[in-house]
Amino acid sequence: MVKYLENDYLVKYAGRMAAKAPSPSKAPRVPSRTGRTRTALIAAGLDLMVDRPIDAIAIDEVVARAGVAKGSFFNHFVDKHAFAAAVAAVVRLEVEAEVARANAGIVDPVARIAGGMAVAARLAIAQPRRMTILLRAQEPATSQTHPLNRGLKGDIEAALAEGLLRPEARDMGVTYWLGLCLVLSAHLVTTRPPLTLAATLLADMLTLGLTGLGVPAERAAQLARDIRI
Q: What is the pLDDT of residue 140?
């Protein structure tokens, strides 16, 4: 039940992130008390998880930072790990919003897949503390059916329909690509390479990753050359 509620929340939140800004003539909606409590808890998690993993953060510390009663925590999250996953999901939604902006107007599904990795690399360099929260998630959203993976899943399915990827990508393409993006992001956050080296690392990972999906080597190398960090 909790997992269902979390997924339902993510679907609704993703919809709000993608929606257009309200018209200035319309009064903004005031969030409910429950919504404000959850928002305060998530904000506290975003502050605390930058510096420490969730196992090193007490629930008492979270609710104190959020300014809410301890019982409120369990109205929203079954435990600390569910909380950490929800906090990481907020960062992932930010990443997905950036991917959507970067891929706007791009029709080629393989180029869109590659563009997603480039966005992850850019954010790892520009916002390493924010990306650390995502990397610390103990339950990364890597399943095909997870609502956060709809965009990548759609691009992989489109590429498969055009015969651009190997058939194994149908079941494992999402997990494979997200794994590469997370590993590359972790490496960039940890090592903080200069921009020129980071660009080379991204190009190498794109070439390796795309050929692993079944993209011809020449096409993969071309995309890796064209994408900028």
A: 63
| Torsions phi, psi for 139 (to 5 deg) | -125, 75
List Cβ neighbours of 57 (8 Å cut-off, separation of 6 or more).
Answer: 48, 49, 80
Cβ of 135: how many Cβ atoms within 10 Å? 18
Give the architecture-level CATH label for domain 2-17+30-86.
Orthogonal Bundle (1.10)
Find the distance separating the first CA and the last CA of the chain, reported in whole Å.
40
Residue 108 burial (C-beta neighbours within 10 Å; 0-12, 13-18, 19+): middle
- Two structure tokens written together for 183: 């590993």
Average pLDDT, integer, range 51-60: 94
Contacts of 115 (CB under 8 A, 6+ apart): 99, 102, 103, 106, 227
pLDDT of residue 28: 47
Please state, in angstroms and rounded to a whole number, the distance separating the CA atoms of residues 66 and 45. 9
pLDDT mean over 57-67: 96
